[in-house]
Amino acid sequence: MIQGARVRLNGWQQVAVAVGSAVGALLDPRRADLIAALGETTGRPAFESVLQRMKRSPEGRAVLLERPRVIYEKVGHAWDLPPNTFGAAYASFMGSRNFSPDDRPPVRFMDTDELAYVAMRAREVHDFWHTLFGLPTNLIGESALKVIEFQQMYLPMCFLSVIGGSARFSEKQRKLFFQHYFPWAIRAGMRSTDLMCVYYEQHFHEDLEDLRKKWGIVPAPAAPV
To answer: Where does Zn(2+) bind (predicted)?
Structure first.
């Protein structure tokens, strides 16, 4: 999936895909394929930086060497783990929303195998981060997670997603986001460890709260009443 679907683009084609994807994603934020295309066509420098950080990290190097995939065939055992574990929390997050780890769109526009894998890994650990930070999948929750993702990876797509998401907020949602979730997300993204260098699947059996402490993760605060 990482190799077979890839498409080579010249400079003008990259610009065209990026602009088209950005416009389409703004019109319909549910189009995961357009958001993915935007991330790939604007994110090469960011993915290269993430790749170098992973190479400097023992756990990151293990991820690059073994190239684990977050698909049900590989992570399905999480559904059988004790309820206090990270794996069980992830399974509960996915099951309660009827999500499947197999639903992520393929990488199409990265021109090396290593960068294609890093882009796919960033896409596939998204729901691990939802679980760890305790964020919902509504517009506010997704926008808050994009703030954290931007601080972790500096992907332009994350910044653009926050702008696009906030443009769709109601006045009440906008006030809640910028007064409550945005400041928390800035602090949480700065405080946590380098989350792209974590081999999450090897920690499924560990206690969720212990891992949050280990990785410096501050869960999202409850919305004010």
So the answer is: 126-127, 130, 142
Q: Is 130 annotated among the ligand-binding residues?
A: yes
Asked if residues 115 and 15 have their Cβ atoms less than 8 Å apart, the reply is no
Q: Which of 99, 143, 97, 102 is nearest to 120 (CA)?
A: 102
Q: Per the annotation, does 48 bind a ligand?
A: no
Q: What does the pLDDT look like over 1-15, one tens digit per residue?
A: 444 455 666 554 655
Strand, coil or helix: 29: coil
Is 123 within 8 Å of 18 (Cβ atoms)? no
Measured on CA atoms in the order 54, 58, 63, 64, is the torsion positive or negative?
Answer: positive
Q: Report which residue type is found at 80.
A: D
Asked whether 119 and 107 are in contact (CB, 8 A), the reply is yes
The answer to whether 207 is annotated as binding is no
Residue bearing tokens 């946590």: 192
Structure tokens at 203: 């920690």
When the pLDDT of each residue in the chain is averaged and rounded to a whole number, the result is: 88
Dig out the tokens for 129 from the structure: 């981060």
